[in-house]
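Input:
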Amino acid sequence: MSSDFYTNFILPYAGIIIKICRAYTNTQEDFEDFYQEVCLQIWKSRENYREDSDWSTWIYRITLNVCLTLIRKEKREKSKRDSQIDTTLLTEENKAFKDESLNLLYEAIKSLKEVDRAIILLYLEEKSYKEIAAIIGVKANAVGVRINRIKERLKKQLYEKVN
Amino acid sequence: MKKSIEDIWKEGFLNKEALVAPKLNHLYNQKSVDLIEQIIHMGKLNIVMILIFGILLLLIGVLIPLVKLPFLLLSAGFIGLSIFAFWKDKRIVAIDKGKNSYDYLKNFDAALKTNREMYARLYRFFYPAVFLAMMLGFVYSAYGDRIIGQILFKFPDLWVVAGVPAVILGPIILIASFMMLFSRKIFEWDVKIVYGRVLMKLEEMIEDMEELRKGDE
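Output:
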């Protein structure tokens, strides 16, 4: 990969990639692997980019698609679907951010199903229902209903954790 | 917790340290860990291995006159199998990752299924052929020849086919036939061990998205 491509076309959007990769990984090693793979795939797919969508939207798509189908290195994948926030993952080593509330929010997001994670991440990034629907390939009205459910679940989890 | 999740998100990322990109070392030299790319690579490797195995059998057949016929036949089978895999089958192709997630996952799933179907067919011949090569290699070796000689000396009335007593050849062919019959099961079991988790996750995600595509949440 030419370093110019990374500097000019990926690095300005690194925030998007970091935020998404963090939601699909539990360890720093996995996070770095996912980040690297996303960058590699953006570079490899650059010729498929059509200007009918923003470059940032396209980055969201690639990042989500790569994260949804990558295999984590960790041997033990915790099934956290119906569980509360797993505090065992919140060790000092696994805390990705200095902000404690953000760490808790991320752990709550990680307890969601993969598709719900994608939806809520896009929502928090202030994408409209229509944009979220287009990125994921679903219907906008269903996205609205799903977001309300996810938010309720996250709020409940955070409330229980703090209290 | 008083703050909304939207506020936690915004405020959490005000600190620029939260968004420092990891250092990338020699990215252009890195191998992709993408599953589809790995499968494409593994598929190519498998076909090359079958071809090499076929050539190896051909060499053995040419160099050792005693095993010439069965090894030449097996070699032809293996080489033919690899050419068939190269030429005939729809190969798994790289998928556009810039598509929406639903289309991407559907394509990903279809690619995995195509690949599984292709290899299930390939292994239908591959498993019994490897078994036959091993067994016939042994039967026609000097050691096997000595054992068969001793058996025929003790039981001279045995029915012999191609220099091998039918009581030995029969079970070999029977086992190879069973392997051919159950190769799909063996292959599926193999796939489940390697990709089981991914396939299950993929199925769940597609089902979930299909719910959202109906729009009747």
